[in-house]
Amino acid sequence: MTDLQLAVIDVKPGASMESQSGLQMLRPRIYGAYRAPSGPKKIAALVMHPTSNFMGHYLIEPLAARGICCMGLNSRYMGNDTVLLMERAIQDLGAGVQFLRGLGYEKVVLIGNSGGAALSSFYQAQAEDLTAHSFPDGDPTHLHPGDLPPADGIALCAAHLGRSRLMRDWIDPSVTDEHDPLSVDPELDMYDPRHRMPYDAGFLARFSAAQKARLDRLEHWALERLRLLRGTPGGPRDQAFVVYRTHADPRCADLSIDPNDRAPGSVWGDARQVNYSANAMGRTTSLTAFLSQWSSRSQADGPANLARTTCPKLLLTYTADQSTFPSTRDTWLAAGGARIRNVDIVGGNHYLAGQPKLVPQAADTIAEWAHTL
Question: Are the CB atoms for 275 and 247 separated by under 8 Å?
């Protein structure tokens, strides 16, 4: 087995500024790390997230030890989703697939871990039938089928359903002033101690309806603002804004909702603290990025895209995950139909952090599945 190797991959530039680095804009590149087993080049796996740094992903070494070259690849938006366009992120994923095929591997599988699940599903759906010719704001994507070679299978691990669904489930409906992160309607504040657990059905229904209403208002504002900017001669085509308090999922506090083996709280710690933090999911975004990632207009819904794909699929459910649940598993399985099967990693948290005995279980399951393709 080779040492960990660095992959430096040139990618096509976008139509707008995606980086503050002049060099990166002039010659956009993405970076990955992979470990290749010795012997014939049969199977390679590619694990990528829209923004997380996966170059040190926990499956790279275990899969290489099981005869599968595994590369953790970063998109051009690594560490910053402020201007992230999902349609551009799949272009980067395609460059990674091309890189691995260029190394001579006969089959390439995608591993969609966490937010990488919807990304992988979106990629494969477009690779099989390209329909994303425009961004949600109407601009052309300039994607070409040659940018998106189809993968041979998709393995989903601790799989979120997609960024638009996360925002729908997590946005805090108790915000009363979009410019004041401390504004709050106590009647809709899941963290207010007056709302005791288990939450009653009436509160949960009002909470969910108010979440949708807030997200709808933000989406309407973003569309109107974009029209205003682009309707102004010589005006800008985009702007940044802040979405306060985006981590208010009642399941973080009430374990009786969608129950699994999880502990109370969030993947990132105390859920209320995360909700009010300066840097959290979707906190700072641009109008176009909001539409592409977080809005109902996003083309990157995980299950909807997975249902369009024809390749074999595997789902690994981590049963102690604090951000994916039995309903998440059921939605993926319904989308995958006869081409998907589920394997539970019992007791697994979202990234199998501090669980060294569970990582080999996940790697064994993926390797056994991949070797049957």
Answer: yes
